[in-house]
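Troubleshooting: if your tokenizer reports a length mismatch, compare against these two reference records.
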Amino acid sequence: MPFAAAFALAFVALVIAFSIAWMVQLRTRNAGMIDPLWAATLGLVAVFAAAVGPGAGINRVAVALGGGAWGARLALHLWRRNHGQPEDPRYAALRAQWGDAAAPRMLAFYLMQACASMILSIAFFVPAWSVATPAIPLVVAALATGLAAVLGESAADRQLRRHIADPANRGRVCTSGWWRYSRHPNYFFESLHWCAYTLWSIGLPWGWATLAPPFAMAWLLLKVSGVPMLEARLVHSRAGYREYMRTTSAFIPWPPRREEQHHNSERRPHP
């Protein structure tokens, strides 16, 4: 199948899927199920690209397994988190902010998810359409990066789920496991996952285009729909979250800053 036709078909399918999801949320008044749908459909785009692409077999297998496994795991996690629960506070806040215009603006928001998915899907389409194959060291680096990303995100999700499930932790900040070193380790590993396709595509035709997905994902999470919206709520709903923000890296896992270092830096005179 020609690249343009496959890319357009995937986009149309996403628009239809997200439009149906939007109609469902009109009835349920719960927009949160867009999250597992987004992960599942993007994983299916990876499988689709691998199935119809004319690229080398190893490229297509890597895309199908990497993108498909990532999408299935994340979709299942998000479904378990959101199904049967009240609407995610982020979406509830948007609905309240938009007021009478909530319905059309939510549709625009859903369709923007489809556009974002297509930017991310560049990571799948480039290798799936390339008859050239990466060098062995790049294959190893890409596979190691992808595996580390999936395992790391799975561990971070599991640690947070365990923290929330304990009644003793109600209203408290999770600082165990990866959450000791990053306020959003799941976001970091999510962005890292997209770097695996960039490594795989080094030297392939149009391989430079696969730089867009990891940068786009990091930008969305850090500047748009991830950290800003989430932390605006957490500073009011989690005891000690402001201090957690001062001592803990927002994104890249890093040893936490000691409290005494924070106070010393505040007392140090500035030139």
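Reference record two:
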Amino acid sequence: MKKFLALLTLSVALVAAAPAQQDPKAGKILDQMSAKYQAMKAFKATFTQTLENDAAKVKENMTGDITVSGQKFRLKVSGQEIINNGQTMWTYMKDENEVNISDYEPEEGEISPAQIYTLYKKGYKYSYVQEAKEAGEAVDIIELAPEDRNNPVFKVRLSVSKADKSLKSWKMFKKNGSRTTITIRKFQPNPPVDATTFNFDKAKYKGVKVIDLR
């Protein structure tokens, strides 16, 4: 599960960009997209993640949903639930009815889903590619390239709605031949959230085994 979270958070983190030699058209679109999400107190998204690697004959799909408010998030995917209040992280595994508690300490290079739309100002160069259609909707395609040549990712392709500047999908290309696509299926701005949304309530999980790793 930690590997999946790292993959997801790395994927969403790739909305990053470097300050120099940037494409102004792409930069304007990214600024508009970022402003849209930063204006929200919270949001909830249902997504599909597709992992492909032709050489390894791999194509895997999974779906999930995530609720984000500030630096806090609640992620549900593949029978597991990750709750993060910015300091403590709970990882609940439904099949085992077990929850692991740990201090939230992002690994180097790992970015929280809470930062998904605010990280395009450092680490990547961006360029405008073209206008296209995605699920019948007009989108602007923007590509990001890492400044660090040691980065295992060599390209990220973003699809931003021309109509409302929402991020429709992003595709991460890695040097090992794998491609990961995150597609937003449903989006809800400003869902109702409170302190309980981003904390694990043991009373709601009857008989849960608690493993405190702090």
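Descriptive notes for reference record two:
- The domain at 2-212 is CATH 2.50.20.10 (outer membrane lipoprotein receptor (LolB), chain A).
- Residues 51 and 60 are 5 Å apart (CA to CA).
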